[in-house]
Model the fold of this input.
Amino acid sequence: MRPDELREMYLKFFEGKGHSTISGSSLIPENDPTVLFTTAGMHPLVPYLLGEPHPSGTRLCNVQKCIRTGDIESVGDSSHLTFFEMLGNWSLGDYFKEEAITWSFEFLTSSEYLGFNPDQLHVSVFAGNETVPVDDESIRIWEKLGIPRERIFELPMEDNWWGPAGKTGPCGPDTEMFIDTGKAECGSKCRPGCSCGKYFEIWNDVFMQYRKTDSGSFEPLSQRNVDTGMGVERTVAMLQGKASVFETELFTPIIEAISEGSGRDMQADADTGQAFRVISDHLRSAVFILGDERGVVPGNLGQGYVLRRLIRRSVRFARNIGMQEGFSGPIAERIIENYKHAYPELETQRERVLSELMTEEARFEKTLNRGTVELSKVLEQMKVHNQSVVSGRVAFRLFDTYGFPLEFTEEICSEQGLSVDRKGFEKAFKKHREVSKQGAESFKGGLGDHSEATTRLHSATHLLHRSLQLVLGDHVQQRGSNITPKRLRFDFSHPAKMTDEEKQKVQDMVNEVIQKDLSVAMEVMTLGEARESGATALFSGKYGEQVKVYTMGDFSKEVCGGPHVERTGELGHFRIKKEGSSSAGVRRIRAVLE
Done:
């Protein structure tokens, strides 16, 4: 089964179960400071999982682009990916475990659909603990479907529990489905979830039936939800009998481009295979981030830093297999061709993707050259002092300051009969990661903040967006936003620095609308109707999809998921604190409500 067939079959199956197919969301979360990227299909639906009515109803399904960056250094093996596609179906206070599990089993095993042998299917459920009981209901449903008790594994919270993103919030047990690949068991404790590869996870049904309180206890939720996820890449690999996702047509055109550029075969040796996988994964992720409707560019902070890290890691591995400067362009072209039918935004943003990618590649090549010069200085001093080992601290400084990979330092030193203190490097690197982790804690989780302060600032972005268009011109389009309870950050397309007069005009215009105390009205209509009515839509969803349109008097009309105030007079006084450059052709405003 090809990826296109899987996507279409999945959506039609759940449409037949009363679900509405909705468009996938941007990789860049809107107005959510808790995460850098959309990490799962449920992420954009959090407000609806918390009880806000969804315009398309209580049963939903879609295909969602996702980025997970927690284990970038692990990418290069046969399974880890940073970008992936997630098939998902949701019940927002509608059906629950009986239907969700039964439909999962039907889609997996029926000859009309995926046709996996039920005898290969193993499942796991929550084992329970001192505060929440074992998920007996899921066990009974699986047994009723014919899964014998010995293939139903009760696992602890770290394996079969979907926790809240923060300290409190919706959570609950899940049941996970695994296909037995036929490999031998790795030991007496081999079971689903084991890292040996015998059991291949293919689907996960999450049952949000509890709310974790401030005290750490779990209370039953008034609205019980179902949130499921099935990875396209992993499922296609299993359906095709492949040992790795990199052997499917989602990657083979990319692998071929790497082979053409390097003159090497992926199967040559373990190091070459790792390089092929890193380059194909990282550049695929980079293309999707750059080609997203809210696409970011390489930078030193947040999403831009992750993008830069992906591109630079691919450059490092490309050098290892002899690829020449400019390699990223032809590979990106192949990725766009491979995906543009499913994700047309990649074709629309083709020139931008290629330009940013190749610019960053060239920039890093210069960085590597500077690192080589700095290392030469270090080696000269070592000769003067008759030293033979480059300290871990120095090796890490080359890595951290100049982006010079440890492997390059070791290679150059080896050629001169010198060595590098790798343990010292790893110690310095570990310390750096701990500091970075502390600074990144605010980006973990999946729940956005919906406090009164954040709601007011979110509403103010609509007024800011429209005011910028009226003052600067219709070319102004939102390019991203980040909102906390204390301030808003708004990125928009504009080629030049705003003058003080322009900033004052925008600020005065927003405050004038606030003072008019206009009503904020919400209507549900199709995306096509919204556009025909003059509403601004910042995403390219399905034309007939049901969306929410928020109108602020006769001033602003936008497609948005919320949350919003009821009247503009609730916002207070709007003040622009700073305006500056975000990236080429993109400006950034920081503002507050007083």
